[in-house]
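User: Just a sanity check before I run the rest of the batch. Below are the structure tokens for the first item. I only need the designed sequence back.
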């Protein structure tokens, strides 16, 4: 998993407008991050809760479906949330008009 995660971080950080990338385990603990520790822990905790809720909503709506990705836009950022088997990835980028 480590080589896969490192490659993913490099690929995302090479993209324009990316602020940071956090790889989080399903306990809400950041595994790898390009952000400062406090910011990573803050995002990880909230995104872990959101991941669980999104997964449950999708299963409640259609038990044959699965949560693949979520994209949220705020005034300042876009946040992408992508679950994988043992972890999920949070990508934060500057919002572009």
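Assistant: Here's the designed sequence for the first item:
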């Amino acid at each position: 998993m480590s080589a896969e995660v490192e490659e993913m971080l490099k690929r995302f950080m090479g993209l324009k407008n990316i602020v940071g990338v956090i790889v989080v385990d399903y306990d809400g603990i950041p595994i790898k991050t390009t952000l400062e520790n406090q910011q990573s822990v803050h995002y990880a905790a909230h995104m872990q809760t959101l991941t669980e809720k999104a997964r449950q909503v999708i299963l409640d709506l259609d038990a044959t479906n699965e949560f693949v990705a979520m994209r949220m836009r705020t005034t300042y950022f876009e946040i992408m949330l992508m679950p994988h088997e043992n972890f999920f990835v949070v990508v934060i980028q500057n919002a572009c008009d």
